Every structure is written in structure tokens, then in C-alpha cells.
Amino acid sequence: MDFTQAQSLLTFGIMLVVLLATPIYKLNNYIKAHTRNEHIKTAVEMANQAVAALVNSGVNTVQNKQKAVDELTQRIASNNLAKNFSKTEIESYVEQAIQQLNK
Asked: Is the pTM of this model over 0.70?
């Protein structure tokens, strides 16, 4: 392989990288957003289950809300999703589940 062939190959490689960089970046962002949405859906479903389990004992008490938050926190952690949710987010999911249940 002589110098001009190597130079052409290098130019082609650089063009290929430049052309594919944007679509790959956008695909990566889409996958991240989709994964985050799936994590949120899972957490909301778990919150609904935690609240439903406590419905017979009066979910509206602060103690039972805290039990639901603790249960949801534990389930999120056991599914290796703890790094994706803050305590405030978990509490809001439980509150949402309670509001849906009270409709």
C-alpha cells in the first residue's frame, strides 16, 4: 500500500466517523431517555403495588405512607435501580399512587 492509498483510506475513515457521529449520538440519547422512562414506569408500578398492599390498613396515615415509601425504596434497590431515583422522587411516586387509589 503506497502513501496515496493510505491517505485515501484515512480520509474515508474520517469521513465515515464524521457522518456517523451525529446519528450515533442521537441514538445514544434516545436509548438513555427510553431506559429512563422504563425505570420510571417500573417505579410507578411498584409504588402502586406498595400502596395497594397497605390499602386495608388506612393508607392515608403518615406511618403507612412511610411504609409504602420504604417498601418502594427497598424494591428499587433490589432491582439495582437505586442510583436512578432520589428519595423525593420515590415519595412523589407513592403520593401519586395514593391519589390514584383515592379516585
From this structure: no
